[in-house]
């Protein structure tokens, strides 16, 4: 028998609404969760909202059906309400993180910003005891940054340049730094870069002396790692020449139809290309442990909280960019 829930639904391009939705009856392998906080993926979700992609990393092409209506998102925390007969790892009352959950009547049969959340048990993680739920509510996205930062090998004295001061850029930089690399973030927003740990350097793109500083950095020590977290091929093209021989390029941005890399240009310096995507259990476990240990910093990056009924305002902020923001979350439990 179907259940009823509340969800954030993209009903069309640039249209965000909060709807009652149908949820499938939980199966033996499912966990049902009362959601407390869900964390918006600024880049991916806004890209869907603008109609730039139709699924995952698939860019929209003329003739494709628009992927609406669709339940947005893919990450949240909450409390377990019930578990299926085949589930032994969780019990009612556990505080957990969950990825995508099941819905009915949408373009895709799953989504993130929905409560209660009927979720396959293999997409649920139990939170550490006494954990601040906010810190873990963006775990998939934190894992994306961790994935970027764990890909390249780190040698003694390694230097890394991370393009992008968004959430993935922060977490990629934190991971590289934790592994022993000297890290510089190239960003556009001074307010975001001020949230970086003091041990991570930063440069603001567009400033007159930034290019000179980057060249000086590369000439002095050599750049061993370049990470693009925003899908900026112009920035990639400008900074690839700064990489040393036998270096590493990590590409994690969404490029649409512009993601063309000159393989010969990489071969000239024997540069290794990494193209991380998605999430898996090993990386999710590692990111969760990084948050628990405190070196992967998450909650401090949240700048805005919205009650779920005001979800449209959250995306208006993200898409319209009418004030500074970084981490944006939705709160589901009303006071």
UniProtKB/TrEMBL annotation:
It comes from the Bacteria. InterPro entries: ADH-like_C, ADH-like_N, GroES-like_sf, NAD(P)-bd_dom_sf. One of its GO terms (molecular function) is metal ion binding. Residues 57-128 form the Alcohol dehydrogenase-like N-terminal domain. CDD domains: 2-desacetyl-2-hydroxyethyl_bacteriochlorophyllide_like (cd08255). Residues 168-278 form the Alcohol dehydrogenase-like C-terminal domain. Keywords: Metal-binding, Oxidoreductase, Zinc. Its cofactor is Zn(2+). Pfam families: ADH_N (PF08240), ADH_zinc_N (PF00107). Belongs to the zinc-containing alcohol dehydrogenase family. PANTHER family: D-GULOSIDE 3-DEHYDROGENASE (PTHR43350:SF19), NAD-DEPENDENT ALCOHOL DEHYDROGENASE (PTHR43350). This is Zinc-binding alcohol dehydrogenase. It comes from Cohnella rhizosphaerae.
């Amino acid at each position: 028998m179907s259940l009823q829930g509340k969800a954030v639904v993209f009903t069309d391009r640039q249209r965000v609404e909060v709807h009652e939705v149908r949820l499938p009856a939980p199966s033996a392998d499912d966990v049902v969760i009362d959601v407390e906080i869900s964390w918006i993926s600024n880049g991916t979700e806004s890209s869907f909202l603008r109609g730039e992609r139709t699924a995952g990393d698939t860019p929209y092409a003329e003739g494709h059906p628009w992927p609406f209506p669709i339940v947005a998102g893919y990450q949240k925390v909450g409390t377990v309400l019930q578990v299926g007969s085949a589930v032994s790892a969780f019990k009612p009352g556990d505080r957990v993180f969950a990825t995508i959950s099941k819905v009915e009547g949408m373009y895709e049969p799953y989504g993130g910003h929905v409560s209660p959340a009927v979720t396959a048990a293999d997409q649920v993680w139990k939170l550490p005891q006494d954990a601040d739920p906010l810190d873990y509510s963006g775990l998939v996205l934190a894992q994306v940054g961790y994935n970027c930062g764990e890909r390249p090998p780190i040698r003694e004295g390694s230097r890394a340049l991370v393009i992008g001061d968004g959430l993935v850029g922060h977490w990629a930089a934190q991971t590289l730094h934790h592994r022993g690399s000297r890290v510089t973030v190239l960003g556009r927003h001074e307010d975001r870069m001020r949230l970086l740990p003091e041990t991570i350097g930063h440069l603001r793109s567009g400033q007159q002396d930034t290019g000179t500083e980057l060249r000086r950095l590369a000439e002095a020590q050599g750049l061993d790692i370049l990470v693009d977290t925003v899908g900026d091929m112009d920035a990639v093209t400008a900074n690839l020449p700064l990489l040393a021989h036998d270096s590493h390029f990590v590409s994690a941005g969404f490029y649409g139809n512009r993601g063309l890399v000159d393989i010969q240009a990489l071969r000239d310096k024997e540069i290794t290309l990494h193209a991380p995507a998605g999430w898996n259990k090993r990386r999710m476990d590692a990111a969760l442990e990084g948050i628990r240990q405190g070196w992967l910093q998450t909650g401090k990056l949240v700048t805005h909280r919205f009650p779920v009924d005001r979800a449209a305002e959250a995306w208006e902020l993200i898409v319209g960019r009418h004030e500074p923001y970084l981490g944006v979350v939705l709160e589901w439990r009303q006071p």
